[in-house]
């Protein structure tokens, strides 16, 4: 993990509540990544993070008109 991230995290984490800190997990090895993918699900994770979901740029999204 880059040194600047560790320094930044130490500085920012002091301002977060304990309950919020307990919800944050920083994945930094293969075993944690496998657990993360299993918990979240491959179908919703983007391919860049080891999943199967394809990301679509916001400007490329088409929304069907509302009926009624």
Automatic annotation (TrEMBL):
Gene3D superfamilies the UniProt entry points to: CRAL-TRIO lipid binding domain
Residue ranges occupied by any CRAL-TRIO domain in the UniProt entry: 1-57
Record's protein name: CRAL-TRIO domain-containing protein
Superkingdom, taxonomy of origin: Eukaryota
SUPFAM superfamilies in alphabetical order: CRAL/TRIO domain (SSF52087)
């Amino acid at each position: 993990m880059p040194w600047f991230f560790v320094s930044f995290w130490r500085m920012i984490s002091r301002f977060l509540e304990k309950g919020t800190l307990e919800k944050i997990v920083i994945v930094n090895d293969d075993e944690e990544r496998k657990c993360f993918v299993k918990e979240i699900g491959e179908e919703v994770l983007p391919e860049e993070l080891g999943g199967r979901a394809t990301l679509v740029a916001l400007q490329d999204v088409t929304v069907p008109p509302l009926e009624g």
